[in-house]
Amino acid sequence: MDLSAVAQWLLVAVCGVAGLSCLARAVRSAAARRAGAGGEAVMALGMATMAVPAAVLPPPRWAWAGYAAVFGAAAARALWRMAMGMGRGPGRYAHHLVGSVAMVYMAVPVAAPAAVAGAAHHAGHAGGGLPAVTGALLAYHAVWALRAGTRLVPPEAQPVEAQAVEAQAVDAPRPLALPAAGRGAGHVAVTGGGREADASGVVQACRIVTAVAMVAMLGAG
């Protein structure tokens, strides 16, 4: 069953805002680029354009082949970076690889010559795919979104014993330690760490948005 027009426009809005946020961070911040904001921006904006109702803005015939080519290249890049051991671990690139493969999987049936007549169906229609593959991709993104969402919940209060130990550690006298290059250098280090954490948070939020949107688009196939 195709997505309703309201659901499609909701996907356009949510994915568009997430993609533009990541794109703006990637342009302004090197920390955001290191966190993968550029790739997440491409993913979210691609999903936003795929979700535009065809009844309002019919996509050109080459659009679906373009989606397949762009995200096929993104999948190859993620696979190459995983093989080369680049970045902060394979997890981020593995998730980006699965997401890119899912985008290609949704675009290829519509891009095929036999499906051109049905291109007026909703964006991301996966009805021409294999049910087992669709189910596996849907389950992966659903589980990933749930796990990532639970990590955003603040941890529960510490036990009383742990709080007492922590209080003793705080009250204990500490030796005076001055930064080697003066107060300014220490301040810059803290600021840099804060920027890294902020950039990672924005990128992680964008990943959660695209994972939830992927579940909606695959589930509507």
Descriptive overview:
The protein is mostly helical. The chain is 71% helix and 0% strand. The protein has helices spanning 5-28, 30-34, 37-50, 63-84, 90-111, 131-151, 160-171, 183-219. Helix 1 (5-28) runs antiparallel to helix 3 (37-50), helix 1 runs antiparallel to helix 8 (183-219) and helix 3 runs parallel beside helix 8. Residues 114-127 and 176-191 have low confidence and may be disordered.
SSE blueprint and pairings:
Elements lengths: L4 H24 L1 H5 L2 H14 L12 H22 L5 H22 L19 H21 L8 H12 L11 H37 L2
Helix pairs in contact: 1-3, 1-8, 3-5, 3-8, 4-5, 6-8
Keywords:
221 residues, mainly alpha, 8 helices, 0% strand, globular
Structural class: mainly alpha
Number of extended strands: 0
Helix content: over 70%
Q: Strand-and-helix sequence, N→C?
A: HHHHHHHH
Rg to the nearest angstrom?
22 Å
Largest sheet: none
Helices, by number, come to: 8
Overall 3D geometry? globular
Distance between the termini: 6 Å
Contiguous uncertain segments of 5+ residues = 114-127, 176-191
Strand content: under 5%
Mean pLDDT: 77
